[in-house]
Design brief:
heterodimer; A: two-stranded antiparallel ribbon; about 40% helix; B: alpha/beta; five-stranded mixed sheet; 15 strands; about 45% helix
């Protein structure tokens, strides 16, 4: 392979790393027994992990890092002096297929800086996906980062080849988008998401003639917002997420702690990325999607709208709502059990299934996989009652990591 | 004592036949020795399996799925544990639903471990290309699984890499795929695979996709345990990546902001100038529509997708005003296209009104809602929001100049007349305003929400009656 390809790959993967998503799950089942290359079987596969703890499932690259936009948080903004490069269609196609054949990846996650115009850029990205699918019979996973200002017809076409489309909301508040990404418009971003939702719904409806319409982004759409680049509180962020999930049927909202970039903008001073905050937001997001929590409930556990960094948000909520505990494990409803710290969704399913056959005791719950050190103050069962522990003043301190000892000066 | 020797491949089938025979004769688990792979003699002379089928056995489908995976575990106890479960299932058909049972839990742990190993093999096998001049490209890999999963996992690689020949060698078994046919060969020591140029590019990718500002080693080790590293070429770089990370981040922080390239300002100025702007002066209905799209007069614009301006005939004699866009209208950017729109269309048709000859809009242009899981629940706009949006409604009425405006529901009535009185007394009547007469009727969503079918039917008839009246007024 040509050495300049390696250089381009270095530049254009370095520039792509700020997109958190690498998911390859949730699409339709396909395989190559009748021709072509590749398969997707529902669950995603992470082929490697880098020391930042993130998985590599897809070849995540930019088509180009030339960009006419000037988003302050982005390494590729027009006013930055980073080294620029551009892949040809053939180079992206060949890298994807050769990596795939060696089982390095599940597929391609293609994003791009905006060159010439949003339409021009989006058309090139669609051409890459189309070439992979139609000329090479590629059955692996394709994720296309959609450019919201591109024409709706290009978004419609992208959905025919991609498993997932994503459009980044970028920042949790409209005002921040207008201030930090002046070429982007929040209403355009949302309209593009609405377009994807509409196209997906239409693709699942069988017409009156019984003909099934063409598939459209079977793995759905996702988005990403940067945490810590503006002053938004966690409550604001979670409300924005809840709204996006409800409005556009998003599969995921990704949170990306604002992290230092080469050649940063004077508008955004570099900070240490708020990784714990990002982690807590993911946990809170999980509570909204799988545990029946509303955004307001999670954020209302603290007065300033910021999640407690010392304990996870479910424990934080339970500590602020002790009147709802202890919960009788053998009688409580599914909804109540899901609120118990230390009980995951699988644990709750197992509890509901097992208690039809026996009265559950402490050891049973340990076997079932419950984290009883966490659940202790919040449950009652034969042989165990938390007594005063539920309301103990120092309960939070028992869970939170001890404060770091100050060193003598 | 019975002794059953299970083969390395086809383990499940042999276990199932033997277990069925033994259990049908009620042989207790303590009298069976299960051995995998080796055929040498045990301590005792083993009895042959009981002859013939004994009593009929029943197991749920879930047990077969469990056994199919747990039998692949390297723990020598797993065939015996499965046999215990098989025996107990004859008296306790729902045994598997009880994960608090120690045996069930043990088997679940075995299954989980096998599943994970299968998954990690799919993830961490690394092929290298072999030289060849045939039509099909050839690849080979060396992998060291924890359990006896090669046979069970081969199908995945066949489905994925159907168009190339490949071999996956492991210490116990090799899976070979050639010209579309799968075969197995005994295990062998690690083969010497030729270098593959793609590995250097893969290493480049691995090193560059890594963000040095966020080190999370525990997370990496949890998902990619060290035992797999030796067969994954990219992991060789991890020490160097870590060693350089801190200096790279410090460098980014220390670097002063650079001067933007001279072309940058011209590019952004050009792009920004071409972006939609709110018109300075609103002189036409189209100006009003463009201005409305960028409206931030109240906070509703932050949550809705887009402003939904009115549509129809710009000089319509009849204007119809609803409350606000709903879920479907918000997505489509057009008024009355959802369920309420269907009710309105039906009523207009019944009243003999052509929708295309009217101007249809809403009192509030952005959708107000509260998120509930995957749905959006409508919220009634408050007085301030109605007030803020009257600006646009007023422009629409000013440009369209309808002879009559129909207010559907309380919010539209408030916006058009400034009065909030109970709808029950106002419905079906004309009210005079400075901007012209307003006829008040039910909102189609109100009709949809009425729980009583009879009441809904009556309300729908009243809406039609009101629209007929409206038609006669503008036709006169």
């Amino acid at each position: 392979m040509k050495p300049d390809l390696a250089r381009k790959l270095a530049i254009l993967s370095d520039a792509a790393k700020y997109d958190a998503s690498c998911a390859s799950s949730g699409t339709e089942r396909r395989d190559s027994r009748k021709g072509g290359l590749g398969s997707t079987e529902g669950s995603g596969i992470c082929h490697a992990y880098t020391p930042d703890g993130r998985c590599i499932s897809l070849l995540k690259i930019l088509m180009t890092n030339f960009c006419i936009f000037d988003c302050a948080y982005c390494v590729n903004r027009v006013s930055s002096n980073v080294e620029r490069a551009r892949f040809s269609v053939e180079e992206v196609v060949s890298l994807t297929l050769e990596f795939y054949r060696r089982n390095y990846i599940e597929g391609l996650f293609l994003s791009s800086g905006i060159i010439r115009s949003p339409d021009h850029t989006m058309a090139d990205m669609v051409r890459i996906a189309k070439t992979l699918r139609e000329e090479h019979g590629f059955k692996g996973y394709i994720h296309l980062k959609t450019i919201p200002d591109a024409s709706p017809e290009l978004i419609d076409e992208a959905g025919l080849y991609a498993d997932r489309l994503s459009i980044n909301i970028e920042l949790p508040q409209d005002e921040s988008i207008r201030a930090l990404a002046p070429e982007k418009r929040p209403e355009t971003i949302r309209t593009a998401m609405a377009r994807v939702r509409g196209a997906r719904e239409a693709s699942r409806e069988t017409s009156h003639t019984g003909k099934r319409p063409a598939r459209f982004a079977p793995a759905g759409q996702s988005t990403q917002m940067i945490v810590g680049a503006d002053g938004a509180s966690d409550a604001t962020i979670l409300n924005t997420s809840a709204r996006l999930y409800a409005s556009y049927g998003l599969k995921r909202v990704y949170y990306s702690a604002f992290s230092p970039i080469p050649d940063s903008s004077a508008m955004l001073p570099l900070v240490k990325p708020p990784l714990i905050r990002e982690h807590r937001l993911y946990q809170a997001d999980w509570l909204m999607r799988f545990y029946g929590f509303e955004a307001e409930e999670i954020a209302s556990a603290t007065p300033d709208g910021m999640l407690d960094l010392g304990v996870d948000p479910k424990l934080g909520w339970a500590l602020a709502h002790r009147e709802d505990f202890p919960v009788d494990v053998n009688r409580a409803s599914r909804e109540q059990l899901l609120r118990v710290p230390g009980f995951g969704t699988k644990t709750v399913d197992r509890i509901l299934s097992a208690r039809r056959h026996r009265t559950l005791e402490w050891d049973d719950l340990v076997r079932i996989g419950a984290s009883m050190t966490k659940a202790r103050p919040f449950v009652s069962l034969p042989g165990w009652s938390p007594g005063g522990l539920t309301d103990a003043d120092n309960l939070r301190a028992r869970f939170a990591p001890p404060p770091q000892q100050l060193s003598l000066f | 004592m019975h002794r059953v020797v299970l083969p390395e491949t086809g383990t499940m089938d042999v276990w199932r036949d033997a277990a069925r025979r033994l259990a049908s004769h009620d042989v207790p688990p303590s009298e069976i020795e299960w051995v995998v792979g080796e055929a040498d003699q045990g301590l005792f002379d083993a009895q042959p399996l009981p002859a013939g089928e004994g009593r009929a056995l029943k197991v749920p489908r879930a047990f077969l799925d469990l056994a199919d995976r747990a039998i692949l575990h390297r723990d020598p106890a797993s065939p015996g544990l499965l046999y215990q479960a098989l025996m107990r299932l004859q008296d306790q058909p729902h045994l598997l639903a009880d994960e608090a049972d120690p045996l069930v839990r043990k088997l679940e742990v075995l299954r989980k471990s096998v599943r994970r190993d299968i998954h990690k093999m799919r993830a961490f096998v690394r092929f290298r290309e072999l030289p060849g001049d045939g039509l099909r490209r050839r690849f080979a890999a060396w992998f060291e699984p924890e359990h006896r999963i090669v046979e069970a996992n081969a199908g995945f690689f066949c489905r994925r890499f159907a168009d190339m020949d490949w071999a996956i060698h492991t210490p116990d078994l090799s899976a070979l795929w050639q010209d579309g046919a799968l075969s197995f060969a005994p295990g062998a020591p690690r083969p010497d695979l030729p270098d593959d140029a793609a590995e250097a590019l893969w290493a480049t990718y691995f090193a560059n996709i890594f963000n040095p500002a966020r080190i999370k080693l525990d997370s990496m080790r949890q998902h990619m345990p060290r035992k797999y590293w030796k067969n994954m070429p990219e992991t060789a770089q991890i020490p160097a990546m870590l060693a350089g990370a801190e200096a790279r981040v410090d460098g980014m922080r220390a670097a002063a902001a650079t001067v933007a390239p001279t072309r940058a300002a011209a590019i952004t100025d050009g792009y920004r100038a071409a972006m939609p702007q709110a018109p300075q002066v609103i002189e036409t209905l189209d100006d009003a529509r463009a201005g409305c799209q960028l409206c931030t007069r109240c906070d509703l614009c932050r949550n809705a997708t887009q402003a939904v301006f009115g549509e129809g005939l710009p000089d319509a004699r009849l204007m119809i005003v609803g409350e606000q866009p709903g879920d479907q209208e918000d997505l489509a950017g057009r008024p009355f296209v959802g369920r309420a729109g269907q009710v309105l269309d039906g009523a207009m048709q019944a009243a003999g009104i052509d929708r295309g000859r009217t101007w249809i809009t809403n009192a509030v242009k952005h959708f107000k809602f509260t998120p509930r899981g995957k749905r959006r629940l409508h919220q009634t706009p408050n007085g301030d929001e109605v007030q803020a949006c009257k600006w646009w409604l007023g422009l629409e009425r000013g440009f369209v100049q309808p002879q009559l405006t129909v207010a559907l529901g309380g919010t539209a009535a408030l916006a058009l007349t400034g009065r909030k009185d109970a709808m029950i007394r106002r419905r079906g009547r004309m009210e005079e305003t400075a901007e012209g007469p307003v006829l008040i009727s039910w909102h189609p969503s109100y009709i949809l929400r009425l729980p009583d079918a009879g009441a809904a039917k009556a309300a729908r008839a009243e809406l039609i009656e009101d629209l007929r009246l409206a038609r006669s007024v503008v036709a006169g």
